[in-house]
């Protein structure tokens, strides 16, 4: 779920840091100032196009505005997959050829 109130707070913070009024942002996004104010309060949901226009005008990415709403997926491996991955990595490390560390001088590192 998107946390629209948190998104609105980030919009407001960024808008204020750039010394812009709600009307300035609304004009740039081609929406009414009252609608923009509702977006900042989290009581209205902008379309994707409007969100992109606001983000562009505030010079931020939409990911910044949606920050707490996006959950990063972390890979979940089964025990079998972990064992196979571990064996594979051990085999690749064993294949590495190590150079003689004395042949390098400090400036080369």
Topology, element by element:
Blueprint: H1 4-17, H2 22-29, H3 33-41, H4 48-58, H5 62-65, H6 79-95
Helix pairs in contact: 2-3, 2-4
Can you name the CATH architecture of the largest domain?
A: Orthogonal Bundle
Q: Whole-number radius of gyration? A: 25 Å
Q: Tell me, rounded to a whole number, the average pLDDT.
A: 86
Total count of domains: 2
Distance between the termini: 48 Å
Any idea of the CATH class of the largest domain? Mainly Alpha
What is the CATH fold-level name of the largest domain?
434 Repressor (Amino-terminal Domain)
SS summary, helix count: 6
Residue share in helices? Answer: 55-70%
Uncertain segments are none
Derived structural class:
mainly alpha
CATH superfamily of the largest domain: lambda repressor-like DNA-binding domains
Q: What's the main sheet like?
A: none
Strand content: under 5%
Total DSSP E strands: 0
Q: Give me the strand/helix succession.
A: HHHHHH
**Based on CA inertia axes, which overall geometry fits?**
elongated
Task: Give a structural overview.
With 109 residues, the protein is mostly helical. The protein has two domains: 66 residues, 434 Repressor (Amino-terminal Domain); 30 residues, no CATH class. Helix content is 58%, strand content 0%. It has six helices and no strands. Helix 2 packs across helix 3 and helix 2 crosses helix 4. The longest helix has 17 residues. The radius of gyration is 25 Å and the shape is elongated. It starts with a helix and ends in a 14-residue tail after the last helix.
